[in-house]
Input
Amino acid sequence: MAVRSMEGLPMPGRAHWLARIPYWLVAAFALGLYFLWHVFNDANYTLIFNAVVAGIGNTLWVTLVAFGGALVVGLIIGLIRTTRNRILLEITSFYVEIVRGVPMLVLLYYIAFVGAPGLVHLINWVGEGFNQVGLTALGAPLAEFSVRRLDFAARAVLALVIGYSAFVSEIFRAGIESIEKGQTEAALSLGMSRWQTLRFIVLPQAVRRVLPPLGNDFIAMLKDSALVSALGVQDITRLGNSYAASTFRYFETYNVVAFLYLVMTVALALFVRYLEQRIPNR
Output
């Protein structure tokens, strides 16, 4: 079938190809090349880039570990929220609504300075319990565990896991509940258990449907990982802050910081868009 223009006339193949070009991406790519030219031809930009780029590893590590943990916790909570157990439903609903209502930066501070010491006290209490029943080999390390051994990177990851698991759980819950009940009833009528129905019928379809929104959450977490700089974690933002404060070159420094985040987030956004086009909803 020939491709037609707005006037109803057939469009040439080249014109049709040009109409499909995302011009915003071309403009962004050109701007990125121009900025890279500045980085490698301007001594100040080169120094800033070399100082800040070292934080990419920590940024990606925090994002990947935290999002992996959020996926696991979110899936468990999402599954529980689809059950008929009223007690479990109320407990998980309380968790989701409270966590989603707290700003991420506030949650980060709370987990780092309140939740982490509380967790260490719980570990010490468990260790003392093991010591009292004679299991000193297991209890002694737990009883002697100090809050200083829990570094701020680990606290930041824990906070991001807690914060994003609440959002991820709602994505999984919506995906599971979007599967037609007739498929579940058909699987049960064929003799499959509820666990087999969930594992082989419901979850494979639900996961395909929730991959694009999960990708969007991953992009959001990559950007929110900049908040860990408030705890002193040496990510891109923290290194940029340190360099700008020592040299007073705020304009150039934050240009580099923004550029690095943009490269990562735009690449991920294009990948998510690719998934949305390739993965069928049904």
